[in-house]
Specification:
single chain, 230 residues, alpha+beta, Glutaredoxin, Glutathione S-transferase Yfyf (Class Pi), Chain A, domain 2, 53% helix
Amino acid sequence: MNLTLYLHPLASFCHKVLIAFYENGTDFRPVTVDLGDPSSAGALLEKWPVGKIPVLHDAARERTVPETSIIIEYVQRHYPGPVLLLPANEEARMDARLWDRFFDLYVSVPMQKIVTDRLRPAGGNDPVGVADARRSLDTAYAMIEAQLKGRTWATGEVFTIADCAAAPALFFASIVHPFGSDQPNLAGYLERLLERPSFRRALEEARPYFFMFPYREAMPQRFLGEEALT
């Protein structure tokens, strides 16, 4: 097997890549990284000293590929499947890339700011930064609500890399900073993402790790019970 993906099943950015892989039936070996274990962390750091996950290693090409969007594009180029997550049409491809970056930068990043603030030691919290992150999410939600009007997926009727980014970003963001009652397009979009088999699989694999999520008490019960996601 050529492809090895270093990941953690609870990490939202890892979900993004897993969704892309599951959409296309990509053949890969997952390696769960425990950054608290020197041996596990060392295997990752040997490939990518920055220490961020996910990271893809292609043994056939002796190539290490970091960064979620680059991993997805790399696999589409060298190990293509039936689903073109980056469309062939240039305009459609640009839109998919734009909204991919949007969900990463303006939903995932502020969401993670809110989540990680709960992990800070006593006295080390950043209430100003968390307030800024919540305002950023409010702006992003409003923009996504408008973008989704008349669309099934982020950029139209075709599932793309943008939707791979949107699914985990919105799933976790909706828990730490719920959508407004005036955002039906956004809420409906998340439900469609949750019904996507690729995302359902990623979440089912993450479920044993949900106890580690700092906002677990805010998770809807439907994601926690034995019948969740089935």
